[in-house]
Design goal:
22% strand, single chain, six-stranded parallel beta sheet, alpha/beta, two-stranded parallel sheet
């Protein structure tokens, strides 16, 4: 299915970081596929790309306190290499980076870059956590959201598919396109 997005749509590449790759306890098994799919989309969104980073809060509070008791390896400062973007994304120094200590990245910092009611094209990891949380919050706030399935990766293939199915329930606020190749940009 071909999906058309407006020329002013923004690519939001969610949390393509070391902490979600390699042998990290939080690694998404298909991280490399998500990174490759996202990298293929970058040339189509020059000047309209935002990278995001998940980082631990300085002092976890509320529900985050027991969360980080379960994941103490992640309680490092946001400048720690664990939270660095992976290549080729780290090399894009001219692209805005939104850093948040929350799963969802929709908020004041992202809105400051993309505006209040943008069309967002979401990619990244993890489909079943940060991508899902960002998509739902953005759609609730009035953004139009397109999720590119082959440029996302979940904690498992099953979790990835479940998250995509959940986001499909939010149509027409959220559209899921299976492949980045099926994404067409309107002329204006």
């Amino acid at each position: 299915m071909t999906v058309t997005v407006p020329a002013e749509a923004w690519l939001v590449a969610i949390d393509l970081q070391r902490v979600f790759s390699g042998d990290s306890p939080w690694a998404a098994p298909r991280y490399d596929d998500a990174a490759t799919g996202t990298a293929r989309l970058l040339p189509r969104f020059v000047g309209r790309t935002v990278l995001t980073r998940f980082v631990a809060p300085e002092r976890p509070q509320g529900a985050w306190a027991p969360y980080y008791r379960n994941w103490p390896f992640a309680l490092v400062p946001d400048a720690d290499p664990l939270y660095a973007l992976t290549e080729p994304f780290a090399a894009h120094r001219d692209v805005p980076v939104v850093t948040e200590p929350t799963f969802g990245k929709w908020g004041t910092s992202l809105r400051a870059v993309v505006g209040d009611h943008p069309h967002l094209v979401l990619t990244g990891v993890s489909t079943d956590c940060c991508v899902l949380s960002t998509a739902l919050a953005a759609a609730d706030a009035g953004a139009t959201v397109t999720v590119v399935a082959d440029a996302c990766a979940g904690a498992s293939d099953v979790d990835h598919e479940r998250a995509l199915a959940a986001m499909r329930l939010y149509a027409p606020l959220i559209t899921v396109v299976d492949r980045g190749a099926d994404l067409v940009t309107s002329a204006g």
